[in-house]
Design goal:
Layout (H helix, E strand, L loop, with lengths): L4 E7 L3 H12 L5 E5 L6 H5 L8 E2 L4 H4 L11 H6 L2 H10 L4 E3 L4 E4 L4 H15 L2 E4 L1 E8 L5 E7 L4 E11 L5 H9 L4 E13 L2 H4 L5 E11 L24 E9 L3 E3 L1 H9 L1 H6 L4 E6 L6 H14 L16 H10 L13 H13 E21 L4 E2 L4 E2 L5 E3 L13 H21 L1
Helix pairs in contact: 1-6, 1-14, 11-13
The chain binds flavin-adenine dinucleotide.
The site of flavin-adenine dinucleotide has 38 residues, from α1, β2, α2, β7 and α7.
Length: 437
């Protein structure tokens, strides 16, 4: 049953909403009501990180941390100097959840189950006295002349209920209803576009290698380059570049998929290029350096050595270096028209040059977005300039707070999106409590 009044209403039972509600209640703000539109709060937490929930990242310096946010970056320095990854680790530890760091810096619950994170947040909310109401969608919010807000909430049974509150937190993630509510309360919105997605490539021979992982790979993306300008899989060096075209570069692990490319480096690339790609209709040209950063001179030397030392061995059985996937190497040989059975001693100079260029700069036309990445998020949202980032209170409307993905902030893969939820939620909690103390 919904009450007719609450001191604080938090709309949205995701990670940002839970953190805001719990932090406010723990900081002394009583009578906090948390509304969740669906029957299942924290749904994205449950499915996150492949069911393991990548809670945050072992990145302890706020100046370094902000580099993981294509949207937000500099503005987040202040908030992260008050509550960042180390604070999130300590917060979860104090609430009974131990996080464990993996080799790449990602932090997961020791249980390796996102359910542990959900239970921790729900337990913390109950212990702090937060009332959770599921199947309750905030539909309308109007400012009362004497202060506070009049709300209209639709329950699961389709009943419309009115309630009043002194302070309102919007924590509705990327759901359009939250953006509409923010706009109705005076906010401007940066149009939403998808971020953190995989790339569909026009490269049928490459996609036959689905399942191959390479690390590290250097990617360079030129959004907007039409596929007509280049041949699929062509490995020529970049020619004349269109004036003013933007380039995006990333380096790290990639996974070849049935449709193109995925993996952390690809997701990071699309996060930073999210707007440019959208503007270009998800078309572009991707240049891939499979060589692990080896220079032309390194490769000339290496191939020269192989010709002598492996002279009698076939190209197929003696790869240039062991980490180069056998399937990828065979694909590159085929692409250059070289027989696998050819011996290293018989590799023609032109074939060698073609292989080296293909290893350093294979080029593939981008033909669209692939299916969602592991951490698909929405870029865009409430303009950050309209929010006091010390407290997350709106600069447009006293008593209104905005947190999480609803804001024009998004991070790359690795736990950075949840970290922004913990930080913005915690700061809002302090702000809500301070306003009334
Ligand atoms: C498959 C997947 C995996 C991911 N894995 C990771 C990961 O491992 N690590 C990481 O950092 N990030 C991950 N992310 C991103 C992360 O899930 C989001 O950044 C994060 O959930 C945003 O939190 P939020 O609280 O702002 O919004 P949400 O999690 O979207 O929560 C908003 C809540 O508000 C509710 N709501 C919406 N409108 C209303 C309304 N009008 N009234 C009441 N309730 C409403 C929604 O039902 C929802 O429950 C992943 C995302 C996806 C899709």
């Amino acid at each position: 049953m919904l009450p007719s009044r609450a001191a604080v209403v938090v709309a949205g039972g995701g990670p940002a909403g839970f953190m805001a509600a719990v932090a406010a209640a723990e900081a002394g703000r009583g009578d906090v009501l948390l509304l969740e539109a669906t029957p299942e709060p924290l749904h994205k937490v449950r499915i996150s990180g492949g069911g393991r929930c990548n809670v945050t990242h072992a990145c302890w310096d706020p100046a370094e941390l902000v580099g993981n946010y294509p949207r937000g970056a500099r503005a987040l320095r202040g908030p992260f100097s008050r509550f960042a990854c180390g604070d999130a680790v300590a917060w979860f530890d104090a609430h009974g959840l131990e996080l464990v760091e993996e080799a790449d810096g990602r932090l997961f619950p020791r249980s390796n189950r996102s359910q542990s994170v959900i239970e921790t947040l729900r337990r913390a909310a109950a212990a702090a006295g937060v009332r959770l109401c599921t199947g309750a969608a905030l539909q309308r919010a109007e400012v009362r002349s004497g202060g506070g807000f009049g709300l209209e909430v639709r329950t699961g049974a389709g009943v419309r209920v009115r309630l009043d509150c002194a302070q309102l937190v919007l924590a509705t993630g990327s759901h359009p209803s939250g953006r509409q509510l923010a706009a109705s309360l005076g906010h401007t919105l940066v149009p939403p576009v998808p971020s953190l997605f995989t790339l569909a490539l026009e490269a049928p021979a490459l996609t036959e290698l689905a399942g191959v992982v390479m690390d590290p790979v250097a990617l360079e993306l030129l959004p907007g380059r039409s596929q007509l300008e280049h041949t699929a899989g062509s490995s020529e060096r970049p020619g004349s570049e269109r004036a003013g075209s933007e380039r995006f570069r990333q380096r790290g692990p990639v996974l070849i998929t049935h449709w193109g490319l995925s993996g952390p480096a690809c997701l990071r690339l699309t996060a930073f290029a999210a707007r440019a790609l959208k503007e270009q209709g998800y078309r572009g040209l991707l240049q891939v350096d499979w060589s692990g950063g080896r220079s032309q001179a390194d490769l000339d030397q290496l191939f020269g050595r192989l010709r002598c030392e492996q002279a009698r061995r076939q190209l197929a059985t003696a790869r240039p270096w062991p980490e180069l996937s056998r399937r990828l190497w065979w694909h590159l040989l085929e692409e250059q028209g070289l027989e696998r059975q050819l011996r290293w001693a018989d590799l023609p100079a032109r074939g060698q040059q073609g292989l080296i260029t293909a290893l350093r700069a294979s080029r593939y036309p981008v033909r669209g977005r692939g299916p969602f990445g592991e951490e698909f998020v929405t870029a865009g949202g409430v303009n950050l300039g309209e929010v006091n980032l010390a407290t997350m209170e709106s600069r447009q409307q006293t008593g209104l707070y905005l947190v999480g993905e609803l804001l024009d902030v998004d991070g790359v893969t690795g736990g950075f999106n949840f970290q922004h939820c913990w930080s913005s939620g915690w700061l809002a909690g302090q702000g809500l409590a301070a306003e009334t103390s």
